Design the sequence.
């Protein structure tokens, strides 16, 4: 839907409701597009995931042989 700034000012809450339901709102001034109101997307959890695992100890310490292994076998 395309609206003028004047119409946007008069109907802001209605237009925001329409955008929240998935309808993009294009705002024009003097026939030129100046802004858009788009529905908010769902946050992408994949961007917060790390690709490489993190060790809780130093790298060189993680791969040292266990001295007390005999007691666990």
Sequence:
């Amino acid at each position: 839907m395309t609206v003028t700034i004047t119409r946007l000012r008069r109907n802001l809450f209605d237009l925001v409701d329409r955008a929240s339901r998935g309808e993009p709102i294009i705002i024009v001034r003097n026939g030129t597009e100046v802004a858009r109101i788009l529905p908010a997307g769902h946050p992408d959890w994949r961007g917060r995931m790390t690709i490489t695992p993190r060790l809780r100890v130093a790298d060189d310490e993680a791969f040292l042989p266990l001295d007390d292994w005999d007691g666990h076998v």
